């Protein structure tokens, strides 16, 4: 025993290891479950991913990881230095992955900021202060106060995007439930819509350094952040258009929402276009991010699909080209019978009909689209 644990302090070390053995095993399983969840989200079926997600959320509750950055947290008060403490980034990864899973399945999230009172700081950008400590970052809240001067990493940007996604998802779910006798203090649909629209604009201002074409080509997290923020804005305005139809409002009420949908859809297409590799490899950006760009792809294709049915001759060519390109990208990251393909099953028929009406112009359009994509990729390299 003395030889194993090293000298006369071996008994002390053995006692400490025994006392924190349970905490060490559980805390080491937390990041393992996150990694497994990240892998299982690639599967077309979410059955195993849901099971792993449930285990990870339950384990986080047991270990009190939702309050990891609180000084009085149970995990900080019961684990000593010999027990590996999960990092804020690992718990934030679970927060992000649950958001993607819930958005794909259309179900509410369990790690809710209001109910769980999540106590996690945003990831530090690595800057050291005068005392050689990490720069203090604010706690994650739905209305966290950030300024353009605050240095936010692209990873923290994904956490902020996940928070906005949860708010928008709750907003859309409330809009589908009839509220004839809503309390007077409860905000209505349009109040929530304009507040969320402003919140998305504010976050884009703070995260502008990660939303450029150069950043999206250089970093997969920035690429995912840009396309998902655009898809989130599109999702919000699509809900506004649907609500206006239900209330029989005049088209002028949602004219701005229709414009924003078109802008966001084309922005997603252009972002993916400049990041599209000339030769596909296992490590290219689309392969690495295929789990997280399926939803933006589908949202963009739906908007362009609707736009193509009402577009004029002056705009139809560009819309059809972008829609064809996104359709090819979806085929590249997912099988023909994949989950996201079922959501845009009618796009191919619409494109084929459009090409027939334009005397085979679609084949020339695809050739030109391929040449443009290769040229943009070479410029990026």
Automatic annotation (TrEMBL):
GO terms for cellular component: nucleus. The keyword Metal-binding applies. GO terms for molecular function: DNA binding; DNA-binding transcription factor activity, RNA polymerase II-specific; zinc ion binding. GO terms for biological process: DNA-templated transcription. CDD domains: fungal_TF_MHR. It is found in: Nucleus. Its main location: nucleus. Signal peptide: none annotated. Keywords: Metal-binding, Nucleus, Transcription, Transcription regulation. InterPro entries: TF_fung, XnlR_reg_dom. Residues 49-127 form the Xylanolytic transcriptional activator regulatory domain. PANTHER family: TRANSCRIPTION FACTOR DOMAIN-CONTAINING PROTEIN-RELATED, ZN(II)2CYS6 TRANSCRIPTION FACTOR (EUROFUNG)-RELATED. This is Xylanolytic transcriptional activator regulatory domain-containing protein.
């Amino acid at each position: 025993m003395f030889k194993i644990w090293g000298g006369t302090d071996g008994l002390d070390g053995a006692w400490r290891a025994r006392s924190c053995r349970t905490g060490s095993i559980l805390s080491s399983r937390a990041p393992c479950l996150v990694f497994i969840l990240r892998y299982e989200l690639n599967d077309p079926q979410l059955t195993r991913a849901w099971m792993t997600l449930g285990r990870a959320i339950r384990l986080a509750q047991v270990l009190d990881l939702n309050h990891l950055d609180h000084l009085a947290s149970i995990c900080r008060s019961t684990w000593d230095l010999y027990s590996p403490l999960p990092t804020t980034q690992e718990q934030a990864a679970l927060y992000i992955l649950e958001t993607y899973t819930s958005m794909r399945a259309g179900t509410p999230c369990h790690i809710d900021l209001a109910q769980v009172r999540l106590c996690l700081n945003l990831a530090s950008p690595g800057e050291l202060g005068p005392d050689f400590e990490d720069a203090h970052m604010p706690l994650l809240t739905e209305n966290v106060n950030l300024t353009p001067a605050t240095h936010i990493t692209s990873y923290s940007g994904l956490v902020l995007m996940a928070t906005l996604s949860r708010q928008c998802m709750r907003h859309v779910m409330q809009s589908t439930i009839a509220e004839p006798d809503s309390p007077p203090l409860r905000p209505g649909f349009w109040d929530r819509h304009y507040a969320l629209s402003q919140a998305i604009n504010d976050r884009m201002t703070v995260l502008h350094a990660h939303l450029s074409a150069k950043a999206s080509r250089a970093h997969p997290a920035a690429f995912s952040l840009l396309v998902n923020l655009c898809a989130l804005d599109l999702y919000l305005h699509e809900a506004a258009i649907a609500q206006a139809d239900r209330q029989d409002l005049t088209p002028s009420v949602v004219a701005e929402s229709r414009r924003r949908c078109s802008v966001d859809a084309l922005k997603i297409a252009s972002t993916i276009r400049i990041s599209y590799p000339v030769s596909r490899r296992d490590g290219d950006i689309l392969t690495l991010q295929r789990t997280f760009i399926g939803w933006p792809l589908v949202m963009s294709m739906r908007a362009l699909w609707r736009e193509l049915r009402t577009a004029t001759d002056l705009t139809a060519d560009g819309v059809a080209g972008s829609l064809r390109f996104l359709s090819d990208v979806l085929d590249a990251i997912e099988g023909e019978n994949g989950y996201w393909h079922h959501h845009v099953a009618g796009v191919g028929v619409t494109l084929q009909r459009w090409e027939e009406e334009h005397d085979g112009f679609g084949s020339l359009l695809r050739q030109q689209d391929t040449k443009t994509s290769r040229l943009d990729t070479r410029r990026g390299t």
